[in-house]
Amino acid sequence: MNEFEGFVVVLGCRKCGKCENICPNGALYRINGFVNVDQEKCNLCMKCINVCPNKALVYME
Ligand code: SF4
Ligand code: SF4
What we know:
Layout: E1 7-10, E2 28-31, E3 34-37, H1 47-51, E4 57-60
Antiparallel strand pairs: 1-4, 2-3
């Protein structure tokens, strides 16, 4: 649903867990500790981008 607006991707997640409960849409999930974004649920609110201390959550146009 966001294909024309860009999307949030994960680059170099360090498994710190700081973004654990930040997503209001439940779009963030973890596999072996590494965070992934469910693009179907993400509405680009940008909350996770601001909370990641490692800048692993990145908005791409
Ligand atoms: S941008 Fe918002 S909706 Fe998308 S994954 Fe991050 S917190 Fe969730
Ligand atoms: S805050 Fe960033 S580094 Fe930490 S778990 Fe989330 S995406 Fe990974």
